[in-house]
Fold AbgT family transporter.
Amino acid sequence: MTEHSEPLVQRLLNKVEIWGNKLPDPAALFIALMVIVWLLSWALSGVDFSAVDPRTGQALVINNQLSGDAMTTFFSKMVTNFSHFHPVGVVLVAILGIGVAEFSGFINAGLRALMAVTGKWLLTPMVIAVGIVSHTAVDAGYVLVIPLGGVIFYAAGRHPLAGIAAAFAGVSGGFSANFVPSSIDPMLQGITQAGAQIMNSEIVLNPLNNYYFTAASSLLIITLGWFITDKIVEPKLKGNELDGDLSDLPTMEPLQENERKALRWSLFATGIGIVLLIVSTSFESSAWRASDGSLTSFSAPLMQSIVPLIFLLFLIPGLVYGIIIGKIRTTKDFIQGMSKAMSDMGYYLVIMFFIAQFIYAFGQSNLGILLAVKGAEALKALALPGGVTITGIIILTGFINLFVGSASAKWALLAPIFVPMLMQLGISPDLAQAAYRIGDSSTNIITPLMPYFPLVVVFCQRYVTSAGIGTLAAMMLPFSVIFLIAWTIFLMIFWSLGLPLGLQASYEYFP
C-alpha cells in the first residue's frame, strides 16, 4: 500500500509520529522546558497582570526563578525534588513485586490461562475496563495495567503496542469514568463545594455527585476505546516491527500439569491474602480506616498502602509459583527477579529526575496558575450561553491539562471562578464539575508533561526499540480527540434530558 492510498487519518498519525520522534530525548526535552520556564519567569516577574491568586486572595505575581534566592533554593531542593517525587516511589515499589512474579513465570502462566478462556475479540474491551476500574487504586493502573495490556495483546498474537494504547486509554484517558467510586470523587467534590459556597454558604454536595454520569461514561469510554483500538490504532501499528527482547514474554502454548498446579496454589495464596485484607478492613475500629471511619479517603491508611499492597499481591503468588515450579530455590533467585526488573528502569529514573526539577520550577514560578486564571477570566468575559460555556470549560480544561497535570490542583484554581459563574447561569456545581472532569481526562494521554507519560514510552520500547514520544502521541491522539468530542456530547445529552449526574446535594443550589 502506498502512502497516498492510506486513509487520511493514518497519514496524519504517521506525520505526528515522525514529527514527534524528531523531538529531543524526553530527558533533554524537560531540561529545555525548565530553561524556558526560568527565562519566562524572569521576563514576566515584573509584569502586573491584574489577577488574583485564588489560593491566597493576593495579587498574582510571577516569581523570578533566576534570582539568587530562587536558584540557591532550587539547588538545595534538587535531591528532595527527585527523591520525594510521587511517581518514582509508586513505580519502583510496584515493579519490585511485579519483577518477582514475572521472573518466576507466574504472570506468564496466568496470562496463558486467561487467554485460554477469553476470546481475542474481547481482549480490547476487557483491557480498557480493567484500566478504568484501576482508578480505585489511585495510580496503580499506570504501573500494573498498562504494561500488562501489552503482554496480553502479544500473547494473543496481536500488536502489543495496541494493548498498551488500550490500557493507557482506560487508565488515563478514561480517568473520570468508573463503575466503582474512588478517592478522586470526594476530593473534587470538596473543591466544588467550596466554590459553590461562595454563592450559597449552606450548600453541601454529595461526594458521589457525579457517580451516575461517571458510571455511564465508563460504558461510553469502553465502546469508543474498543472501536479506536481495533479500527484506527492497531491497523496503523502494522508498520511498527517488534525488535525488542521478547524472549521472556508469554506465548499461547497450553499450560503443563506442573504449571497448572503451581498456578492453582499461587492463586490460592493470593485469595487468602485478599480475604485477610477484607476481614481486617471490615471492622469499624480497623487500623486501615481513617479517623472518620472511611476506607476511601486520601487519609485512610488503606489508600496510603495501595502500592505496597500491589507489591505483596504480586510478590506472594510469584514466590509460591516459583517455589513449586522450581524456578525459585534460594533467596538469591527472587532477589534476582527484583534486580532484573530494576535494571530495566534506569532510563525511566533519568527522565524522572529532570521531570521532577521541571515541575518544581514550573510550580514555583506561578506560570501555570497565571495560565489557568487568565483562561478562566477570558471565558467568563465572553458571557456565552450555558451549553457553549460548558463546552468552553471542557476545552479550556483540556488545554490547561497539557501544562498542569494535577487534577486537584487545576480544579482548586478553576472552581472558585467556574462554579459561581455557572450558578449565576442556572447551571449546577455538579454539572460544572462533570465538565471539568471530561476536559481533565481526555488530554491526559497526549501530554509528555504528565509524569507517567515517559513510563508508557518505556513500556513501548520493550517491544519497539525506536518508539518515542511521537509514537505514543500518534497512538493516543485518536483516543484524545474522539473522547473529548463524544464525551462532551454525552454530557450535553445528560443535561438536556435533565438526567441526574449523581447523588443530589443536601441543599438547594441557589440562595
